[in-house]
Structures are given as structure tokens and as C-alpha cells.
Amino acid sequence: MIGLYWHTLGEGDRDLVLLHGWGLNAEVWGCMLQRLAPHFRLHLVDLPGYGRSQGYGALSLSQMAEVLLVAAPERAYWLGWSLGGLVAGQIALMQPERVAGLITVASSPCFTAQEQWPGIRPEVLSGFQQQLSDDFKRTVERFLALQTLGTESARQDARLLKNVVLNQPMPSVEVLNGGLEMLRTVDQRQQLMALTLPVLRIYGYLDGLVPRKVANLLDELWPNSSSIVIAKAAHAPFISHPEEFSRTICQFAAS
User: Fold this and answer.
1) pTM over 0.90
2) How large is the average pLDDT for residues 177-188?
């Protein structure tokens, strides 16, 4: 398929757009569908250049948001996991009137560690960028393995993520490099302070990519938002703790 992959299902009367993370595609939400479909119209999207959304090169964050907004419902809840959280945040900044609520999952407005800001060391992200050209598949697998470290179901969760990648078309090295560049350079901390729409942030206590300290720092920086840290979860809390995760989403939308 050339163009944006966008699939809608569910019986609810509210729209919820689900944006996946780096290297993956919309199939990652499979464990959520039965739990969320009775409550929402779910919009499953492969980000431009990922999975079935082929024909795109490496886009900027704004360009990616523009592509999604063309296909999106007039007003929806936007849920973004990891890199998808940056994209959802950009959509809220560009067209807040179209966002009923913003939900970020294991995401950070600034993924790179800086002075007095926890995150991924810049040299780690640069290393992944260099390794992509040498061993594309192995680099993606290593990054996925990092996302489940420490959880009781780590091996099973890592296998699920790997299958999600391998069962759909792989992104190009150019697209993956572009995604890593976003993680390395984007900083939305100050911009998102101005948002007045409802914001929920979900974290995993054991997350090695987005440290739980980020939750407390953003509680202070964004007092109008709310946060929840799921104990025993890592970077993919919706996979390791689907019941708690879906319940949190439904409660947020209901409130």
C-alpha cells in the first residue's frame, strides 16, 4: 500500500487515535482492541513511512502531524506511545481545537538526557543511528528489547514487539534514522506548558528509556496535566498491564 494506513473500528461514540512508537506499526495495539473498542471509535494508524504507510521519506515532526490531520476525525482523543507521544503533542500544538484530550504513554517531551533532565544519553541514540546502516534488523531488535527490560513478562513482551515488526513491511533506514533524530533533538517542554486541553501522562515504573523521574518533573512543569505510573511496567505498559492501562484510558475520557 502506498499512502497512509488508517483503519477504524469500535462501537463507542468518542474517537481515539492510537499512534505507535519508533520502528513499529499499528498492530502493536492488538491487545487493546477488545478492551477499548466497546468505548471508542478506534483509529489505528501506521505513522508515515512505517508498516503499511509506505511511500514516505523521513518527515519532520510537523510534516508527520500534517499528514495525520488530513485523515483524522474532526475531534478526537489522541494517544501517542513513545515517539508517537511527540507526534500527538505536535498535533495538539498545531490544532488544539481538534484534540479532545492528549494521552502520552511512556513518552517524554524531551527524550534526550540533559542537565537536570533524565532521559536517553545522546551517544546511545547516535550509536543506534550509526548501527542502523551496518545491521538494520539487529539494531531494531536491540531497541525493542530495551523496551521490556525488567518486567515479569519481558521475554514474552519482547517477542510480541518483534513479531509486530516482522509481520508488516519494515520502515526504511532513512525513516528510522529520521525517527531517532526526532528522539534526539525534539524538546516540547516549554511549548506544551501552554496547552489548556486535558492531558494524561502514563509511565512505567521500570522504564529504562523514559525514567519515572520525568513524571514528577512534568507534574511541576505542567500542573494542568495528570500522570500515572504503573508499577512493574516498563516502556510498553499497555502490553504488560493491559487491564490497568485500558481502565485508565476509559476513566480519563469519562472525566
Assistant:
1) yes
2) 94
Spacing of C-alpha 52 from chain mean position: 17
- Give the active site residues: 82, 207, 235
What is the mean predicted confidence (pLDDT) over 6-22? 96
> How are beta strands 76-81 and 99-105 bridged, if at all?
parallel
Condensed to tens digits (0 to 9), the pLDDT of residues 83-104 reads: 999 999 999 999 999 999 999 9
Burial of 228 (0-12, 13-18, 19+ CB in 10 A): middle
pLDDT (tens digit, 9 = 90+) per residue, 22-37? 989 999 999 999 999 9
Mean pLDDT of 43-70: 96
Secondary structure (H, E, C), the chain: CECCEEEEECCCCCEEEEECCCCCCHHHHHHHHHHHCCCCEEEEEECCCCCCCECCCCCCHHHHHHHHHHHCCCCEEEEEECHHHHHHHHHHHHCHHHEEEEEEECCCCCCECECCECCECHHHHHHHHHHHHHCHHHHHHHHHHHCCCCCCCHHHHHHHHHHHHHCCCCCCHHHHHHHHHHHHHCCCCCHHHHCCCCEEEEEECCCCCCCCHHHHHHHHHCCCCEEEEECCCCCCHHHHCHHHHHHHHHHHHHC
Query: How far apart, in whole angstroms, are the C-alpha atoms of residue 161 and residue 102?
Result: 24
Residue 146 has pLDDT above 80, yes or no: no
